[in-house]
Amino acid sequence: MHTALDLEPLEPLEPSGNGHHPPGGATLSARDVSAWFGDRKVLERVSLDMNAGSVTALIGPSGCGKSTFLRILNRMHELVPSASLAGEVRLGDDDIYGAGRRITDTRKRIGMVFQKPNPFPAMSIAENVTAGLKLTGTKVSRGARADLVEECLTRAGLWAEVRDRLRQPGGALSGGQQQRLCIARSLAVRPDVLLMDEPCSALDPTSTRRIEETIHDLRQDVTIVIVTHNMQQAARVSQHCAFFLAEQGTPGHIVEAGPTERIFGDPADERTSDYVNGRFG
Ligand SMILES: Nc1ncnc2c1ncn2[C@@H]1O[C@H](COP(=O)(O)OP(=O)(O)OP(=O)(O)O)[C@@H](O)[C@H]1O
Where does the ABC transporter domain lie (predicted)? Predict the structure, then answer.
């Protein structure tokens, strides 16, 4: 059950990063995105700007298409054999579905963190951080690797806890630490955008809070889009919010989107008000 909302912004616990990372983030814009699995349409003309320097939360009841929309944003939807889509997704000025655009280029610029932490359990903590470099063809000299590991673990809010055991396996960390390790791994390829699909749903409240602090610290550098079922979390971590709904078997669509404070405090649509106040979903 969702409850009344705490709109207080989070205070960072640690400074974000060590100053080595570039300022960044880029605005991600979806225009008239529709999606299908086979003949079944699950998203209807979704348009949304996810601004640089900002956290955008995607909220809505189960099955309304939030994860599908998120997966379209980094070209994962097309990996499902029956899946198709229409519309446009732009990262800055680039059409990520444009002719000749390679999936690996998109994945490099738009990282993703999943519901269940998925580090490589037998690889060391340090190797986990750099694991994505090879996959995306990112070149980092051997000498620069240690700095990159420290930088990314710091930005992910994990450095202080693991600095003395970088050679231990990633699988030996707690669930919350593993999730921050996955965030560090995503950051190592220097993405402009980080997509997070219910990143805290498998975590306890303390680990959840820690991830929320990490999100708060990262947003200066990386555009963040997060799917969450937790309304208090959406209110705490996001500056913008989009409310998705799929009514009576119709495809999911955005009922309304805007500044989080307005979506929670003064929504334009009664359905949004009912949802954010826990009256359904
Ligand atoms: N691989 C798939 N094949 C067929 N249908 C799918 C597939 N993935 C999702 N769907 C359907 O697409 C619709 C949207 O699902 P999606 O997972 O995007 O919703 P969601 O809002 O993220 O839900 P939840 O909050 O429960 O994760 C649902 O009706 C779902 O059953």
Answer: 28-276
